[in-house]
Design a protein that fits this description.
- This protein has 2 helices and 2 strands; from the N terminus they run βααβ.
- It has 64 residues and is of the alpha+beta class.
- The chain has one domain (2-61).
- It has a two-stranded antiparallel sheet with strand order 1-2.
- The radius of gyration is 15 Å and the shape is elongated.
Length: 64
């Protein structure tokens, strides 16, 4: 069985502006890093809990 991600989430559960406010970061120098950390945190928590937080499109390919 091979799961294939068809449609990734359009938005993350935590916005960039909310994360920057929490981290007390001003300016746009670290925006890419913070976006990456938001995605990584969501993926880690989803893997640990076994549940998805955001609607995603998946295709399951079964071996015959």
């Amino acid at each position: 069985m091979s799961p294939i991600l068809i449609a990734a989430p359009a938005v993350e559960p935590v916005s960039l502006s909310t994360a920057k406010l929490y981290l007390r970061v001003d300016g746009a120098d670290e925006d890419d890093l913070i976006r990456t950390l938001i995605v990584a945190a969501r993926l880690l928590i989803e893997a640990a809990s076994g549940q998805l937080f955001i609607t995603e499109g998946w295709r399951i390919v079964l071996d015959r």
